[in-house]
Amino acid sequence: MQVETLDIRTLPNAQATEIAELLVSVWPKSVKTVAVRHEQLLALGDHYAGLEAQAPRSLFIRENGQIIAHAAVLPRTIGTAAGDMVIAGLTRVCTAPEQRGRGLGEIVVRAVFELVDDGTFPFSLFQTTLEVRPFYEKLGATIIENPIINSLEKDAHGSPFWDKEIMRYPGSGNWPGGEIDLRGPGY
Ligand SMILES: CC(C)(COP(=O)(O)OP(=O)(O)OC[C@H]1O[C@@H](n2cnc3c(N)ncnc32)[C@H](O)[C@@H]1OP(=O)(O)O)[C@@H](O)C(=O)NCCC(=O)NCCS
Predict the structure, then answer these.
(1) Distance between CA atoms of residues 93 and 55, nearest Å
(2) What is the chain's alpha carbon radius of gyration, rounded to the nearest angstrom?
(3) pLDDT tens-digit profile of 9-60?
(4) Please, which pLDDT band fits residue 104 given cuts at 50, 70 and 90?
(5) CATH number listed for the domain at residues 4-181
(6) CA of 102 to the centre of ligand 1 (A)
(7) Is 81 strand, coil or helix?
(8) pLDDT tens digits, 124-139
(9) 71: buried, middle or exposed (CB in 10 Å: 19+, 13-18, 0-12)?
(10) E strand or H helix at 27, and its extent?
(11) What is the pTM of this model?
(12) What stretch of H or E contains 182?
C-alpha cells in the first residue's frame, strides 16, 4: 500500500474535503461538520515558521479513488525540563470503518514514526484512548506520565489534551522527566 504525503500548507481543497469526509465518517458523534473538519485541517498549516523538513503534513492511503486511512503530523515546539524540543504531533489518525483490520492504520502511523526513525523529529507525542493504546504500543510507542500544561492559556488548569492516554514514540530514548509545556492547545 502506497502512502501519499501532502504538505498541509498547500493542501488542495479537494483533498482537504476528502479527508474531512473520512474524519466525519470515523467520528460521526462529533458535532463537527465536513466544512468544520476541512477548515480545522487546513488551519494546522497556518503560520508555520519552522523547518521545511518538519512542515505539517497529511499522510493517507487511497484505494479505488477513496481515501481510506489517514494520519496528520503537526510539528510543535514543546518546553521540557531538558529544553525546547520540536516533536511530531500525531493527530487525526483513522481508518475508514469498513476497512479496519487490514493493517492500514499501522501503515500510516508507521509512515509518521519513520520521520522519527530518520531523525527528522526526536519524538512523536500524541493523545489516545485506553481502547486504542494497544494499537500504538504494538508500533513501539509508550505511555508518558509527565504533567502536561499549556502556558499560553490564561487560567490554565490541567492537561490541554482531552484523551486520557498520552504517548510518545519511540518508547526508548532519552525522554525528559518533569512537566511538558505544550505551548498551545491539545491536538
Ligand atoms: C485505531 C485505528 C486507526 C486502527 O486502524 P486499523 O487500520 O484497523 O488498524 P490495523 O489493521 O493497522 O491494526 C494494526 C494492529 O493493531 C491492532 N489493533 C488495531 N486497533 C486496535 C485496538 N483498538 N486495540 C488493540 N489492538 C488494535 C490490530 O489488531 C493489528 O494487530 P496485528 O498486527 O497483531 O494484527 C482504527 O480503529 C480507527 O480509525 N479507530 C477510530 C479512530 C481512532 O480512535 N483513532 C485513533 C485516535 S488517537
Answers:
(1) 17
(2) 16
(3) 999 999 999 999 999 999 999 999 999 999 999 999 999 999 999 999 999 9
(4) very high
(5) 3.40.630.30
(6) 9
(7) coil
(8) 999 999 999 999 999 9
(9) buried
(10) none
(11) 0.97
(12) none
Strand partners, 69: 61, 95
Sign of the four-CA dihedral 179, 184, 185, 187: negative
Residue 146 in grid coordinates: 509527565
Stretch 97-104: mean pLDDT, rounded?
98
Give the pLDDT score at 155: 76
- Residue from 3, 94, 124, 132 to probe ligand 1 pocket by mutation (most atoms less than 8 Å from CB): 132
Residue ranges per domain, the chain?
Answer: 4-181
The SS3 assignment for 173 reads: coil
Q: Is 97 in the pocket of ligand 1 (CB under 6 A)?
A: no
User: Over the range 79-115, which residues count as b (16 or more CB within 10 Å of their CB) and which as e?
Assistant: ebeeeebbbbbbbbbbbbeebeebebbbbbbbbbbeb
CA dist., res. 163 & res. 84, Å (int): 24
pLDDT at 146: 97
